[in-house]
């Protein structure tokens, strides 16, 4: 019974991976992340970032960084894309692509964004691109090892005796 289940799950996982790594879908995602960058509101840093988030049903949610005169209120492109998607009913994600104008370096998500991404799973793909659309890809869990996740809140705790 267990073997059957594992086999079944492995099959589902395999199909899922094939779907995720479909290169034309990923190329589209990367292209959309670069397009989203053009909407960045970054008058203070002049560091424009775009993101495109692929939801499990194929929907793509885009985002850009949105800065503010009260500097700490600025939000990153990745979190804009996540917030947009979740607020429209999406909670399962397959991949996110991130774009910037850096000529020779890939754009890598900041610590806050890594924490936001890992809230929705440790095993989905982050495509960190260069301006020429080449990329490096890593899992959310690789980008934030030893992370605090929703499971952490459900861990058994010691009792607090007063
Ligand atoms: Zn960020």
From TrEMBL:
GO cellular component, one term: cytoplasm
Keywords for this protein: Hydrolase, Metal-binding, Zinc
Database matches in InterPro entries: APOBEC/CMP_deaminase_Zn-bd, CMP_dCMP_dom, Cyt/Deoxycyt_deaminase, Cyt_deam_tetra, Cytidine_deaminase-like
Family in the record: Belongs to the cytidine and deoxycytidylate deaminase family.
PANTHER family tied to this protein: CYTIDINE DEAMINASE
Catalytic site: 78
Protein name: Cytidine deaminase
Native species: Sinanodonta woodiana
Required cofactor(s): Zn(2+)
Pfam families assigned: dCMP_cyt_deam_1
Reactions mediated catalytically: 2'-deoxycytidine + H2O + H(+) = 2'-deoxyuridine + NH4(+); cytidine + H2O + H(+) = uridine + NH4(+)
Sites where the protein binds substrate: 65-71
E.C. number(s) listed in UniProt: 3.5.4.5
Function of the protein: This enzyme scavenges exogenous and endogenous cytidine and 2'-deoxycytidine for UMP synthesis.
Gene3D superfamilies assigned: Cytidine Deaminase, domain 2
All residue ranges annotated as the CMP/dCMP-type deaminase domain in the record: 24-151
Binding site for Zn(2+): 76, 110, 113
Gene Ontology biological process terms from the UniProt entry: nucleobase-containing small molecule metabolic process; pyrimidine-containing compound metabolic process
Enzyme class per UniProt: hydrolase
Molecular function GO terms recorded: cytidine deaminase activity; identical protein binding; zinc ion binding
